[in-house]
Write a structure and sequence with these properties.
Distance between the termini: 40 Å
Shape: globular
Strand content: 25-35%
Radius of gyration: 24 Å
Largest sheet: 5 strands, mixed
Number of strands: 17
CATH topology of one domain: Dna Ligase, domain 1
Bound molecules: thymidine-5'-triphosphate, magnesium ion
Strand order of the largest sheet: 5-6-1-7-8
CATH architecture of one domain: 2-Layer Sandwich
CATH superfamily of one domain: DNA polymerase, Y-family, little finger domain
Length: 449
């Protein structure tokens, strides 16, 4: 166990929306919602101005529109987010060689190689300086948490969000965690939560006080002992610098070996859902689907299939995984299942437009996901008009006009497109309307840093 507060976790605030507000001055201080992507038409994230209305990630866009009708609803611009992310991650890598990027807007730093003896006062000053540098360089605000482990640093970065810093002093770990609900621990999903609740465990403190044997009985050896340690603020996980993720995967170990095909398929579906959510978050799709399976005797196999086209659709990933599973004998019991997608490429405009097509297979499989309260159709939340010429403009998209220069699409419909002419370094700009086929308009790359 580390004794110095050397682990730092950074998470950018309302990341996609913060980039939108940076690039679109007229949206600063206003409710902004990025979403509409994926067959389900859900919110990717909302600016803090929109969150006060109750809008949040994974909510159907149709529901968000009812809660916050005056927000700007934008399609994601992954290229812009990736560029912003690279600026911030580059700065972090200048601080220490041990930087582990865990998502587009999140990273852990281990300061041990550069400040092995740092104390609370020293790390507080360092973290505040780093937050200021991130803002200076990228225009974005970051929340940070610092402590003796990844677990504590991550929990810390959530405590004073947005634009806040929390340093948890060595020795204060267990006390800080104790009043928090168990779902704040990594690896605690609804199933684990239910199992622990049944035993009267609802806070992390409750879990810490339960005997190791009881926790293992409820959750199995591996999961049970890891969670019990976390509950006491013990986490030995290393910060592992990684290259860019080349695949996205999710796996699950079962408390008892599974044999029933139906049950295995159900788990595959859930794992594919988790993979899809991460593909959506990173704005990538992939061509190769891999199934991983560990048998009752710990022998492990992987099987892959390569699709004609990259996909980020849960239904396609499930279908491929189910087909791979069909060729494996599982009658003796399966202890672990995993689903992965590799051969990743960026979402293209085609992916975004494909997301507008209602996907009947998907609707049939997961009716709950696709039907919002008012029963609107999947993907219907962000209408986009496609001109006879095949041209289309999506809200938020970067464009350039032959005479007026750079701007972005506010909306389009009835054969017209409304453009606001402004950029990161201009004042809020004027709005003009054009025919969607106006030859003076062209799609453009996002502004650069
Ligand atoms: P988060 O860091 O979870 O969220 P956030 O940065 O928007 O807000 P916070 O201030 O609470 O950190 O995720 C980073 C980005 O990932 C987010 O801006 C959009 C994307 N994302 C999705 O596309 N779908 C999701 O369900 C989530 C949670 C995030
Ligand atoms: Mg964030």
């Amino acid at each position: 166990m580390r004794t110095r507060p050397v682990i730092l976790h950074l998470d950018l605030d309302a990341f996609f929306c913060a980039v939108e507000q940076l690039h679109k001055p007229s949206l600063r201080g206003k409710p902004v919602i990025v979403g509409g992507i994926g067959r389900r038409g859900v919110v990717a994230t909302a600016s803090y101005e929109a969150r006060v209305f109750g809008v949040g990630s994974a909510m159907p866009v149709a529901q968000a529109r009812r809660l916050c009708p005056n927000a700007a609803y934008l399609w994601p611009r992954f290229a812009a987010y990736r560029a912003a992310s690279e600026v911030v991650m580059g700065l972090l890598r200048e601080q220490t060689p041990l930087v582990e990027q865990v998502s587009v807007d999140e990273a852990y730093l281990d300061l041990t190689p550069v400040h092995p003896d740092i104390d609370v006062a020293g790390v507080t000053e360092l973290a505040e300086r780093l937050r200021a540098a991130v803002h200076e360089l990228s225009g974005l605000t970051a929340s940070m948490g610092v402590g003796t482990s990844k677990l504590i640093a991550k929990i810390g970065s959530e405590l004073h969000k947005p634009d806040g810093l929390t340093v948890i002093a060595p020795g204060d770990e267990a006390n800080t965690l104790a009043p928090m609900p168990i779902r704040r621990l990594p690896g605690v999903g609804p199933a684990t939560q239910t199992r622990l609740r049944r035993r009267g465990i609802s806070t992390i403190g409750d879990l810490a006080r339960t005997s190791t044997a009881d926790v293992i009985e409820a959750l199995g050896q591996a999961h049970g002992s890891a969670l019990h340690q976390y509950a006491q603020g013990i986490d030995h996980r290393a910060v592992v610098p990684e290259r860019d993720a080349k695949s996205v995967s999710a796996e699950e170990t079962f408390p008892t070996d599974l044999t029933a095909r139906r049950e295995l398929t159900e788990h595959l579906r859930r794992l594919a859902g988790r993979v899809t959510a991460r593909l959506d978050k990173e704005g990538v799709s992939g061509r190769t689907v891999t199934l991983k399976l560990r048998r009752y005797d710990f022998s492990t196999l992987t099987r892959s299939t390569t699709l004609d086209q990259p996909t980020a659709a849960a239904s396609t990933i499930v279908a491929a995984a189910v087909q791979l599973l069909a060729a494996i004998d599982t009658s003796d019991g399966v202890r672990l299942l995993g689903v992965g997608v590799s051969g990743l490429t960026d979402y293209t405009q085609q992916d975004l437009l494909a997301a507008l097509e209602p996907d009947p297979a998907q609707a049939e499989e997961t009716p709950d996901d696709d039907t919002s309260d008012d029963g609107s159709a999947p993907g219907a939340a962000t209408p986009v008009e496609v001109a006879a010429s095949g041209r289309s403009w999506v809200p938020g998209q970067d464009i350039t006009h032959a005479e007026r220069g750079p701007g972005w699409v506010q909306g389009s419909g009835l054969g017209r497109v409304t453009v606001r002419f402004e950029g990161p370094h201009t004042a809020p700009g004027p709005i003009r309307t054009f025919s969607i086929d106006d030859p003076a308009l062209a799609p453009a790359a996002p502004p650069t840093w």
